[in-house]
Amino acid sequence: MPVLPRSLEIQGEIAAIRRDIHAHPELAYEETRTSDIVAAKLQEWGLEVTRGLGRTGLVGTLRKGNSPKAIGLRADMDCLPMEEANAFEHRSRNPGRMHACGHDGHTAMLLGAAKVLSETRAFEGAVHFIFQPAEEGGGGAREMIADGLFEKFPCDAVFAIHNKPGVPLGHIVTRSGPLLAAADRWDIRITGKGGHAAHPHLTADPMVVGANIVLALQTIVSRNIDPIDATVVTVGFFKAGSAYNVIPGDVHIGGTTRTTTPENRALVQRRIEEICRGAEQMHRVKIEIEHKPGYPPTINNAEQARFAIDVAAGVCGEHAVAGNTRPSMGSEDFSYMLERVPGAMVWLGNGGGPEAAGLHNARYDFNDLAIPFGVSFFVRTAERFLEERPA
Description:
By secondary structure, the protein is α/β, with parallel strands linked by helices. It has helices spanning 5-9, 11-23, 32-44, 103-120, 140-146, 149-152, 206-224, 262-283, 302-316, 334-340, 371-385, and strands at residues 48-53, 57-64, 70-76, 125-132, 157-165, 172-173, 177-180, 182-191, 195-196, 231-239, 246-247, 250-259, 286-292, 298-300, 321-322, 343-351. It is elongated, with a radius of gyration of 24 Å.
């Protein structure tokens, strides 16, 4: 079944909401204006609205019949702390704030789906429209869950859309298993004994220790991880010293690791510890390690990923879907929801080809022509998952 005619009829209305949100971007846990708009629209269309989950998050619920079955549909609302370089009319009016990841589009498409489903109600059960704050590093999904999201709104499955620049307009892609990576940060602080550059034998040089650690970290992937599994260990900075003729007393190294499975995530952390403890004993220095866990890997449930692709094929056509797209080493806090409830995230083409401004780019903008595809996917997903039973 192709794009819903109703999604085309309301495209202008939904695009106007999207552009208004784009022009007034709000950072993590500051999405008060955005959540006010969302709540007002949901209430206008007759949905039950619950606010205050994850501070600025909210859930709109649409029910029909007596079936206990329920589905969650999720969108994120926050922006990024960056300056927008676009000059169009709906560019950001908030300095140092920009919707550079398309959350304005995600929110608008889910609102469009709520409008259509409130009119048609061609399902049996409950649809929970989850509008989440603070995806960009704030862990809004985790906070909504901590506030009882799935206890208050039990879901048998949960689905989300993220736009994807470079994927053709009208295409939807995903995969079962890992779709996005875990992203963790770490700090290594080495304390040695500094001294005069002319007398290195009287020091415990932390620079040499740090250099050895940097090289050893690169063996974690090449000699510990199955080559089929995507894993990245990146050293982002190496801070030490201030003079040509002084061996410094300490070194600070920091970086990130990205892994696509919980097992590799734990393995990488363990190997960082082992490398540093070995260097500590070898070079007579003290090493402190601080791990800063980020979002877990986003792992699509195999059954729900297949279901999502089947729905997408009905919306976009068989030629415009793929169920074996390559995973990304980016990260997403929808992962927390997928740890609790089986579901899947799909990527919706934002168009533009290889030269398109990518996500987190100062010239990015969500493509309003993608709205009917996203609205139709959300609507069809809910209707198919909650198919009406014959009387």
